[in-house]
Amino acid sequence: MRIDILTVVPELLESPLNHSIVKRAKEKGLVEINVINIRDFTSDKHRTVDDYAFGGGAGMVMMIEPVFKAINKLKSEREYDEIIYTSPDGEKFDQKMANRLSLLENILILAGHYKGIDQRIRDFLITKEISVGDYVLSGGEIPAALITDAIVRLVPGAISDEQSALSDSFQDDLLAPPVYTRPAIFNGWKVPDVLMSGNAAEIDKWRHDQSVERTMKIRPDLMGDDEYE
Questions:
Q1: Residues 136 and 88 sit within 8 Å (Cβ to Cβ)
Q2: Exposed site from 8, 100, 140, 226, fewest CB < 10 Å?
Q3: pLDDT confidence tier of residue 20, bands split at 50, 70 and 90
Q4: What is the CATH code for 2-152?
Q5: Which helix (H) or strand (E) holds 108?
């Protein structure tokens, strides 16, 4: 898998893309991640990538020319399965979307910045717009890193225990159950007996029941009209 990220602030992506699971996946050759500076595609000697909006109003807008040049150059080198724009008004990112994106081969992510990007880029070059939540950030770099992390950890081999990823919260529209480790008793607080019983069937049932209970209490919206037994 290859993920290319276009940004005006590449420094914001250095740490999250060079540690932990993402770093190991890169070292194993499972994924290639490239951070490309949009400023490298401007003809302006000051490397300017933003300008005032037509019609007035507060805030600056990412200019069309450098972004167009950057995307066109990358598209000339390979075919992208998705060209994603991170935006507060995009489709809400969730685990199901991460699962689908993890099956793709080439992904390009354009990190939004300033007040937004010239609408013509969104109209003619972007294939998918993604929001990571109903709030506004200083830029799309953090969402781009978040999306990349969620995708990469699903790539086979990225996590040594692949069952771990399959049991994460939201994989089956349920929150993950509580987890415990040693010591079994600490400060008088005990681990549930069932988890130390050695009875795999009872443990599985307990975990499922806990997931259903936690989801109904914390995120009932995830359950929809389905019934869990």
A1: yes
A2: 226
A3: very high
A4: 3.40.1280.10
A5: strand 106-111
